[in-house]
Amino acid sequence: MDILTLCSVYEVLKCGGLRPAARALKRPPASMAAAVNRIENELATPLVQKPVHGCR
Q1: Distance, CA of 1 to chain centre
Q2: How many structural domains comprise the chain?
Q3: Is residue 25 part of a domain?
Q4: I want to staple 11 with a disulfide (CB 3.0 to 4.6 A). Which of 1, 21, 49, 51 is the partner?
Q5: Tens of pLDDT along 1-56?
């Protein structure tokens, strides 16, 4: 687990979605999704609900 991944996941949770977090950090949405997946896999638990649009 690295600091960039933690910051990315924090921003996703704070902003309520991948796209708003990506805009805030000036990164591609795919990198936000990858960060969430890395943390979820490492912790072996889902952190966000993944509806069709956004995260909760």
Answers
A1: 13
A2: 1
A3: yes
A4: 21
A5: 799 999 999 999 999 999 999 999 999 999 999 999 999 999 999 988 877 666 66
Is 50 a member of any domain?
no
Number of alpha carbons in the 13 Å side-chain half-sphere of residue 28: 3
CB 21 within 8 A of CB 36: no
Q: Would you put residue 44 in left (φ > 0), alpha (ψ -120 to 50) or beta?
A: left
9 lies in which domain range?
A: 3-43
Do residues 8 and 40 make contact, with C-beta atoms less than 8 angstroms apart? Answer: no
Which class for 22: exposed (0-12), middle (13-18), buried (19 or more C-beta within 10 A)?
buried
- Cα 11 from chain centroid (whole Å): 7
